[in-house]
Amino acid sequence: MSLTQIQSFVAVAEEGHVGRAAHRLHLTQPPLSRHILALEDELGAPLFERTPRGMRLLPAGEAFLQHARRILSEVDAAVHTVRGVVGGPSK
């Protein structure tokens, strides 16, 4: 599981649509869809219901979303801490 897959998952979950999530992440739809499919394959469960109007979280996706947001928050905090130690710019 990669950080990119987790970021992609959160964006699609929040946007409810692959196209809008791809735009938000400055990606095209095909690689974003591949990130989601690879994540679902690794987890062994579908995370979204695909509908003609977009993507809706399934119960497994709802459960994973909390953890995914926490992971991204922890990564941001770690980057901020390291940059503070070395005197680099913080986000």
UniProtKB/TrEMBL annotation:
UniProt-recorded name of the protein: LysR family transcriptional regulator YnfL
High-level lineage: Bacteria, Pseudomonadati, Myxococcota, Myxococcia, Myxococcales
Keyword annotations from UniProtKB, A to Z: DNA-binding, Transcription, Transcription regulation
Species for this entry: Hyalangium minutum
Record flagged with keyword Calcium: no
InterPro entries: LysR_HTH_N (IPR000847), WH-like_DNA-bd_sf (IPR036388), WH_DNA-bd_sf (IPR036390)
Domain HTH lysR-type: residue ranges: 1-58
Keyword Transcription among UniProt keywords: yes
Family: Belongs to the LysR transcriptional regulatory family.
One GO CC term, this protein: protein-DNA complex
A GO MF label: DNA-binding transcription factor activity
